[in-house]
Design brief:
191 residues, four-stranded antiparallel beta sheet
């Protein structure tokens, strides 16, 4: 029926404040489209990026992805040389998110799995994201005085729990996935 009608949002989408009431005029035989803009109910997020010892790391970027798959937010915590930085967002819509690191402080660090984060209205959600250094590799080459490879020489790295590794036909012994640290290499068997 032709006339003016009030339009009231009865339930806002998750994480959003309700929209303002609006009036719409309907004419006989015509379709009317109503657009209601809603703003996210605000919360804040503060991300502190550290290494395994708790030292601050700069230079990371993150994506904050909504659980429902809709667009979220992107933020970076500054220059890699500035280790006293934190990434923060204000006015974040309340609700659940996946926090994904999109840029690590450097390639020396292993990727971090997504973290589930819940932003609450009028609160600052604090998240610590810890980066672990990637493991290294130790390659031992055993040669004679003329540079020829020696087979069958065995070596052990203390604290690696792998045990002795012996040189192959190319005179090489390899220790893979060695955690970052200082080790003592001992020859346990001569070729």
């Amino acid at each position: 029926q032709t006339g003016a009608y009030p339009v009231r949002q009865t339930r806002a989408p998750a994480g959003f404040a309700g929209g303002n009431d609006t009036a719409v005029r309907v004419l006989a035989g015509e379709a009317v489209e109503v657009s209601i803009e809603v703003a996210p109910r605000p919360g804040s997020l503060l991300i502190r990026k550290t290494d395994t010892a708790g030292a601050a790391l700069g230079g990371s970027c993150f994506a904050l992805l909504r659980e429902d798959g809709s667009d979220g937010y992107e933020l970076c915590d500054g220059d890699p040389s500035d280790a006293n930085t934190a990434a923060g967002l204000r006015g974040v819509g309340i609700g659940g998110y996946a926090l994904r690191e999109t840029r690590r402080p450097s390639a020396d660090y292993a990727p971090v799995a997504d973290l589930q984060v819940t932003v609450r209205e009028n609160e600052t959600t604090r998240v610590q994201v810890v980066n672990t250094l990637r493991p290294g590799r130790v390659l031992v080459r055993k040669t004679d005085t003329e540079g020829q490879p020696l087979t069958g020489a065995c070596f052990d790295l203390d604290r690696d729990s792998v045990g002795a590794v012996c040189t192959d036909d190319d005179g090489r012994a390899v220790f893979d996935a060695v955690p970052v640290g200082t080790y003592v290499l001992t020859e346990t068997q001569a070729p």
